[in-house]
Amino acid sequence: MRAILEDLIHLLDLERLDTNLFRGESRDIGTNRVFGGQVLGQALAAANRTVEERTVHSLHAYFLRQGDQTAPIIYEVDRQRDGRTYASRRVVAIQHGRPILNLAASFQRPEEGVDHQATMPEVPDPETLKDAQEYRRELIDRCPEASLPRFLRQDRPFEFRPVQPPQIVDPVPSEPRVDIWFKTVDRIGDDDALHRNILAYVSDYYLITTAARPHGYSLLSKELMLASLDHALWFQRPFRVDEWLLYSIESPSASGARGLARGLIFRQDGTLAAAVAQEGLLRVRTRDRE
Q1: Which CATH number is 85's domain given?
Q2: Active site residues
């Protein structure tokens, strides 16, 4: 297994300090704050460690403060309910004595029921598309590497195959939609909780930037401030994050310096695996704010 993926798995394997108290490390992915997906994945991992015989089916989180990459994060789990079918957990992520994230998660014993789902969009197979790494190399060829943010120069534990070519340099207004295939760079084990923790981690990619597309902004737009405000994730059917998954994202609205994005995650055979929604800060800096 590649070291970068081993490190992600290690990152989600929290140290237990007490019955309901855990500690996680942080990683610098090239930004000035902890990646929101890391806190999501770790908070879910903490909740998972306190539940037996049930599987997480949904989580709802609010990002409260930027995380400090140089300090560990403490996760305090509140066992709010253990019913016959469902269990509920509340997790607070704490750094320097202050909460940086609140997460609520619900767990369910497996049971059968009615079944229907949305249809997966018709998109090219991932094997026919360019890897995001190729786009990054082309970007480095066009721009001096020193001028690119570190997060564009760092390797990731995932393969990403975008359907729509990414607009990073010289973006133009375009449809608020992104379809992207992804999977981990290597196979991992069969631990279902780990696959769900990793999906929570990676589900924070590409969401809020989709809301910026109609306005001709990208991650490199200096006048744009982007930050996740909340995050919801619903697990629908079994999946593996080491097999191709299609993340189909759209942004139905942006207003009040906030953007709304929602996504469906499909297995390659068209099975709907999960659904995601997020609202984020989408603020254009003006001279009055600078």
Answers
A1: 2.40.160.210
A2: 204, 228, 278
